[in-house]
Amino acid sequence: MQSFLDTVAANLFARYGENISKLYLVFPNRRARLFFGQSLSRIIEKPLWQPTYKSIEELIAEASALQKADNFTLLVELYEIYCAHRKTDETFDRFYYWGETLLHDFDQIDKYCVNAASLFTNLRDRKSFEGDFSFLEPEQIAYIQKFWSNFSAEKESRLQQDFIEIWDVLLPIYQQFREKLFEKNIAYEGMIYRQIVELLTNENSENLFPEHYVFIGFNALNECEKKLFRYLQTRKQADFYWDYDTYYVDNEQQEAGEFLRKNIAHFPTPESFNPDFSSFSKPKNITAIAAPSNIAQTKVVPQLLENMSAESNEKTAIVLADEQLLIPLLHSLPNTIGEINITMGYPLRQTAIYTLLELLLQLFVNAKPTKNEGANYYYKDILALALHPYIKPLDNSIENSVYNKLISLNNIYISNKYFTDNQILYKLLLPIENFSDLNNRLLFLLDNLSTNEALNESDSLLQGNIQYIVCQLNKLYDALNKSQIKEISVKLYAKIIRTIFQRQTIPFTGEPLVGIQVLGMLETRSIDFDNLIILSANEGVIPQLSKHISFIPYNLRHGFGLPVPEQQEAIWAYYFYRLLQRAKQIKIIYNTKNEGITTGEASRYLLQLKLESGHKIKEESLSFDIEFPEKQEISVEKTPEILTILNNYCGKEAVKKFSPSALNAYLACPLKFYFKYIERIDEPDEVLEKIDSRLFGNLLHKAMEIIYAPWISKEMNSAVFEKLLADKQEITKIVEQAIAEIYYQKTALPPDFRENGDLLMTHDILCQYVLQLLLVDSKQAPFVLEGLEYSVQHFFNYFVNEQPQEILFGGIIDRLHRKGNNYFVVDYKTGRPDNEFSSIEELFANDLQKQHPAILQTLLYSLAINAEKKQSVTPLLYFLRESHSNSADFGIWNKTEKEKISDISIYSEELTEFLSKKLTELFNPAIHFAQTTDKKACEYCAYKAICRK
Q1: Alpha carbon distance 412, 372 (integer Å)
Q2: Alpha helices in 451-561 (DSSP H)
Q3: Concatenated DSSP letters for 776-799?
Q4: 238, 266, 294: which is the final residue of a domain?
Q5: Among 787, 791, 840, 847, which Cα is nearest to 818's?
Q6: Which of 26, 61, 323, 415 is the most buried (most CB within 10 A)?
Q7: Pair 866, 941 in one domain
Q8: CA-based nearest residue to 696, from 789, 766, 776, 770
Q9: 100 within domain boundaries
Q10: In sequence order, what are the beta bridge partners of 378?
Q11: Count of alpha carbons within 13 angstroms of residue 850, beta-carbon side
Q12: Is residue 21 domain-resident?
């Protein structure tokens, strides 16, 4: 079957012969030009010049002396006029987004030749409604009157009043905007259209369009295009070729033919052009496929291509109604598929270079100005920037150096002065004062990327992407710089950059007529394929929901002949049916998942196809058998190498101390012990934005250490505590010193310390806890402070293969003090109070519900002190949450015996026995390191991502 372009090429060549080279062929899209050239090449017998190819936009623009300006330049000009008429100091930031809406309305007013004075009638002046509307049809006038009837001067709502206030200034804004653009010899597209159409009535109009023009494959026309067509038709300078099918043109109920029925009547095709216009009714193999997700749609495409009996890939097209599926589709196509040609371009927002610019923009937008250092930057923004794959080639050491610097500083906001050892990052983080600085910083980064040989060798597309972005930035900066806008903030400039770049696409390069074609719906106009795969045939995608908000209400749009949603739906219906009319094998896929604006419903046009077309539609549903592999239990054998590491804790020559924390880790999960103490996999350090319980405990420990340090080996009596408790200012200084040393790792607090609300609150709570602990200790005075952060070690016995062994046990006790001959082991705890146990055996259980890590740790420390001092030892747990209670008891209780432990020696034998059993198990080569069976132990485990419990 001949394609539409084949028939047009044959007819034109038959009519004009070699003079076809003199024709100007006008197409609705660029892709159709290329396919027409291919069609023409198949019928000519000797070389000849190609006709001149134009789009309708190019044809009209070339006839005008006005230059089409970019949207941003137009918005700047519009903003200044808007502010003057509205007498408002509204910022450009607020104006920008709906300014685009106003610009779009003005563009349509001109393209549809609407009388702006009649449209923007003063709604409060009823007499103005009686003006001359004879150019409108009765139905249009009825729509306008229906709109006006909703407004009453006596019953205006606040919303109506706001609308009228804006509506009343739209006409002068529109008029002055056009005047200003004319003065500068620039215009928006609709303004150029209207100017040219108005010039057609002049005596010298023949100079505007002196050639013979052929319009091919158009559908919906605006009023300017219709007037141009009539002008050229009257002068016999135009031929018209319409691409349609009788199925939807002859049936007035079919919305797909709404515009073509009028076009064919007003601008008939040449008499000699009589192709088969009934292709839609020919037999077709149509399959509708329901897919459970967007990604699933793309994954089935390779199989569909393989099953299609295509003569050649060039006659096959994959049509993306939702162009966001381009990247998933490209990842789904196998290398064996051969060549593909992509028409829609690669979204700039999905490139690595855009993500890098986004990170830099985010860094400056989140920056925190300071009095002395210019600006401080959020540490996560700095880290994200340093970790970007494009930054590392600029400095190979940047990743580690920045990470280590952030950890060592432990500041949430950091200035660039800390990165002088890395010039790229240092210069990027220099403070910026205005949008000009931001623009220069972006260009500085792009220039460094562009000149980096290693980076450009690894990414062949980078250079082109950078050039495109630099060009766009320069245009944007020039427009802003020339404007009269006084204040353009860094945040606004960043927003504008994002808005512009998120819509841009970078075209692919390649041979456009070779291989499978990947197109959007708009690119399919006038082109025919034997084999089609259409993705995202969902309601809301086909037809596409209108994206343009308008200041012009629906009734007025309808009354003045401006586009309305129904017409948009008719246009999409034409795209759909025209695409199918000559195809043979058609696969239509839609997403059944209901998410976001996607309803999970098939397009209305697919439903119409099933019910009205007469074609039998085969329906299929994609399903995937997803089987999750059984989780494999992880167990690590105690190899000779592992046993060697364990033996570092053993014997008189031991080089490591086996701590209570290590024992508690083993009891909680043997595999956790293996990761942490055998493989030495530590949790990664990170900057702490919020004070967690661990850091809070460290701060409290440090504060108490500073207070008590002068009293080591001395007696602390009531007088000492009275003095300490009375000097609250000194306690505040000590807490601040602790925060400086632990949190900031400095000798003094930074000037902006009090701007961190979370840390300031922690500071106040710490002061209260310190005072309360001093009060608690004062009740136990007098006592002799034996040590702070007291180091202790002791050898415990265990058995391996019934042979006695010993392990070096040790750790750090928070505080050790003495009253007479009785020693007290004090451990500070910030967690939930837990100072009771039922038996020594349960302390060594592998059941998380029975374990009491804090109690076991304190008892073992007490046991070691008992062995060292040969005196009575009492274990104490200071739970901060109970320190304010007058009835608080910091002792450790045996619930079964209903007694508080006052002397650890009573439990010495039993503790040693169960500890020996656990150590024997730990050092037994036959017992592997296995995962815990208690899932609750995994909830907050740092290694759960590794073992996947």
Answers
A1: 17
A2: 453-458, 462-482, 490-501, 554-559
A3: HHHHH-SEEEEEEEEEEEEEEEEE
A4: 266
A5: 787
A6: 26
A7: yes
A8: 766
A9: yes
A10: 413
A11: 12
A12: yes
Task: Please state which of the ranges 164-168, 313-317, 484-488, 561-565 shows the lowest mean pLDDT.
Answer: 484-488
pLDDT digits (tens, 9 = 90+) for 274-331: 999 999 999 999 999 999 998 999 999 999 988 875 556 678 999 999 988 988 998 8
Cα 542 vs. chain centroid, distance in angstroms? 25
Task: Determine how many CB atoms are found less than 10 A away from the CB of residue 346.
Answer: 18
DSSP track, 584-629: SEEEEEEE---BTTB-SPBPHHHHHHHHHS-PPEEEEE------PP
Residue 567 within any structural domain of the chain: no
Residue bearing the bigger pLDDT, 342 or 300: 300
For 261, the domain range is: 4-66+195-266
Residue 841 vs residues 671, 910, 917: alpha-carbon distances, Å: 22, 8, 11
The pair phi, psi for residue 763, each rounded to 5°, is -60, -45
pTM for this predicted structure: 0.73
pLDDT tens across 224-264, in order? 999 999 999 999 999 999 999 999 999 999 999 999 999 99
Dihedral angle sign, alpha carbons of residues 193, 194, 195, 198: positive
DSSP string, 843-869: HT-S-TTT--HHHHHHHHHHHHHHHHH
Does one domain contain both 747 and 603? no
Are 429 and 374 a contacting pair, CB within 8 Å?
Answer: no
Task: Please name every residue paired with 796 in a beta bridge, in sequence order, or none if there are none.
Answer: 807
Helix %, strand %, coil % of the chain (to 5): 50, 15, 35
Tens-place pLDDT, residues 639-665: 999 999 999 999 888 899 999 999 999
Q: What φ, ψ does residue 29 adopt, rounded to 5°?
A: -155, 165
Calculate the dihedral angle through the C-alpha atoms of 435, 439, 440, 441, rounding to the nearest 10 degrees: 100
Whichever domain contains 541, its CATH number is: 3.40.50.300
Residue 630 within a domain: no
DSSP string for 173-225: HHHHHHHHHHHTTEE-HHHHHHHHHHHTTSTTGGGTS-S-EEEES-----HHH
Q: For position 127, what pLDDT does the model report?
A: 45
Asked if 791 and 653 sit in the same domain, the reply is yes
Reduce the DSSP state of residue 291 to 3 states and report it. Answer: strand
Contacts of 335 (CB under 8 A, 6+ apart): none
Residue 573 to residue 571: CA distance in whole angstroms: 5
Q: How many angstroms from the chain centroid is the CA of residue 827?
A: 46
φ and ψ of 581, to 5 deg:
-60, -35
Start-to-end CA span in the chain (Å) = 61
Confidence of residue 929 (pLDDT cuts 50, 70, 90): very high
Helices 56-63, 189-199: axis angle to 10 degrees equals: 60
Query: How is residue 150 written in tokens?
Result: 């909703």
Q: What is the CATH number of the domain that holds 925?
A: 3.90.320
Give the residue among 824, 726, 827 at the shortest CA–CA distance from 784: 824
Cβ-based neighbours of 831, under 8 Å, separated by 6 or more:
693, 854, 879
Q: How far is Cα 707 from Cα 769, in angstroms, rounded to an integer?
A: 13
Regarding whether 650 and 524 lie in a shared domain, the answer is no
Instruction: Fill in the DSSP letter of residue 336.
Output: G
Instruction: Give yes or no: residues 107 and 238 share one domain.
Output: no
Residues 818 and 928 in one domain: yes
- What residues have CB less than 8 Å from 318, skipping those under 6 apart? 301, 329, 516, 517, 518, 519, 533, 535
Residue 510's pLDDT band, with cuts at 50, 70 and 90, is low
Measured CA to CA, the distance from residue 403 to residue 385 in angstroms comes to 11
Q: How many domains does the chain have?
A: 6
Measured between alpha carbons, how far is 288 from 299 in angstroms, rounded to an integer? 16
CB neighbourhood size of 9 (10 A): 26
Do 938 and 792 have their domain in common? yes
Q: Do both 334 and 203 map to the same domain?
A: no
